[in-house]
Write a structure and sequence with these properties.
With about 220 residues, the protein is mainly β. About 10% of the residues lie in helices and about 50% in strands. It has 2 domains: about 60 residues, no CATH class; about 130 residues, Sandwich (Immunoglobulin-like), CATH 2.60.40. This is PKD domain-containing protein.
């Protein structure tokens, strides 16, 4: 289905193509549906099959952003490609975590940040932006931890016995599945308009072995 048909306007997703109502069309729309509240405007729709140049129905519809911008915003959001989170913990599996010792959890920077995509047609362009904002960790032992930001990466300078801004301590040995779900806030801009759509998520999981810490040898043997 074409996004734009010259002389008919933009595809509205309902079998019709819309262009801004003016003159007699605008007067008719206001007479039938009333004066719109800004930023909404009346558009006149031609409904039919453009391949056959068949337009049996004309309707009027209110759009807040215009069909061109709304359509391109939808297409730009569909084109976004957010990566699945690359999970990092310390120590790195297959090395085991230790019971009652904080497991630091973070998302690798390569799978964090922002991603963009742009859709263009008929001289109008809309860019959608996805911004990672938080991670929800399901630790596999009945605990859920939500952290703003990607979490703090462990370095050799950190004390492994201390908690990070995003960590979890397992209370029993075993094999667990750790799942990270990143929430991406979605916004768009173009055609003189801006907007947001519901957040999207990406998810990944890893296996996490956990074992009891060995007894310390204090006899020098």
């Amino acid at each position: 289905m074409p996004c734009y048909v010259p002389g008919r306007g933009w595809w509205g997703g309902d079998g019709c193509w819309y262009q801004l109502a003016t003159g007699d069309d605008l007067a008719t729309a206001i007479a039938v549906g009333g004066t719109p509240t800004p930023p909404a405007q009346w558009y006149v729709g031609s409904c039919g099959n453009p391949a056959e140049n068949y337009w049996p129905i004309t309707i009027f519809k209110l759009f807040a952003n215009g069909p061109a911008v709304e359509l391109l915003a939808h297409e730009a959001v569909k084109a976004l490609r957010m990566p699945s989170p690359l999970i990092r913990i310390n120590p790195t599996p297959p090395a085991a975590q230790l019971v009652r010792v904080p497991t630091w959890m973070w998302v690798d920077s390569s799978t964090w940040g922002t991603r963009t995509a742009t859709a263009s047609a008929g001289g109008v362009s809309v860019t959608a932006t996805a911004r990672a904002t938080s991670v929800t960790w399901v630790t596999g032992d009945g605990t859920t931890v939500t952290c703003r930001g990607p979490g703090q990466a462990w370095t050799p300078n950190n004390d492994p016995a201390k908690s990070s801004s995003c960590s979890h301590s397992y209370s029993a040995a075993g094999s667990y599945t750790l799942t990270a779900t990143v929430t991406w806030e979605i916004s768009w801009a173009g055609g003189g308009q801006t907007g947001t759509v519901p957040a999207l998520t990406t998810t990944a999981s890893i296996a996490v072995p956990v074992q009891e810490a060995g007894a310390l040898n204090t006899n020098g043997v």
